[in-house]
Amino acid sequence: MSEMTLLEGDPEVAGLVQAEERREFRKIRLIASENYVSRAVLQATGSVFTNKYSEGYAGKRYYEGQQCVDPLETLAIERAKALFGADHANVQPYSGSPANLAVYFATLKPGDTVMGMALPSGGHLTHGWKVSITGAFFRSVQYGVDGTTGRIDMDAVRALALAERPKLLIAGATAYPRIIDFAAFRAIADEVGATLLVDMAHIAGLVAGGAHPSPVPHAHVVSTTTHKTLRGPRGAMLLCQASMAKDIDKAVFPGLQGGPHNHTTAGIAVALKEASTQAFGNYAHQIVRNARALADGLAAEGFKLVSGGTDNHLILMDVTPRGMTGKAFAQALDRAGLECNYNTVPDDPRKPFDPSGLRLGTAAVTSRGMNEAEMARIAGWFGRVADAVNDTETLDRISSDVCEFTAAFPCPGISVQ
Ligand code: DSN
After folding, report:
1. Is residue 239 located within the same domain as residue 106?
2. Nearest Cα residue to 58 out of 265, 244, 273
């Protein structure tokens, strides 16, 4: 069989890959769950490990030929345990939703009560939201945030937990800009006899880099994706206390999944090595400084920030006081070269597909070496776009400025200039 390059063999897909590289390079990427992985992570993820089946765990597989997969998975596990100080790690979950589902399978029976943060308040679908399997097959009760402060009210969480006695209590969020009190969640879990799951997907890189308190000492089990602030490939991990190790492993395989994606495991191993360096610690702290600088700049432009600011990588704002919806603003921003997602805000009267808010994050721009000065510039563009939401000429002019601006900031893993 002749060996063709991607460009020779499939120019259509090659063209789309190149176009995506150019797009990612030219835009200011502010989607809070996205990042740019290093060339080393890309190489590991695109490696021949994609060819190999390896159901089971190191030393106990159902296929032969594991001479390289076993040490690879063990390396990823040991790096995860060392980085986060966990007793046990499972690096096989395909992504965050299956990782969370594995915890349900390990700890609950269908119909048992689970308690997590409601999606419109900043939780995740798999934290028990009604359209998710986690809300349909389990009895789900949900907490939110205080409508005035935009923060989780731990007294309200405790009162709900005492009334509903969940078997699984979930802390963690996808759109919450403040530090979560993991110790208080654990105290509530202990009081009602629940297992505490912390989903740290959004903040994993900040935790790894020492820029955010760690949930690992408090939670019975921690789930995380590997591709957000942690800057690894699309994938996930579960970290847990020794007493849960067997149940968690059994729930992932054979409970929920078949063969692990070994090419992803390779990328995760590389990302975990990168995340253990001093440079990554500096990066994690800069993400937080950048988020604060961007939040300050946006507030100065007159935007209404949920909770008034941020402690992590993420900003949530209600844009309706500026006379537009989140969707209209996000679309105008995208045309102007600034990429973010529209999002519900707490107690949002609007529907999720056209909500009141925007969610922003600073992990990706920080990966490009942008600092506080650049955040001030970006906030200024938000102000200009808000004044020109329906003015395509102005949006296109801003897009040219953005393109010139981003050209000075190389993207990890991307060689387009
Ligand atoms: N979809 C992810 C996010 O954007 O936060 C959560 O899974």
Report:
1. yes
2. 265
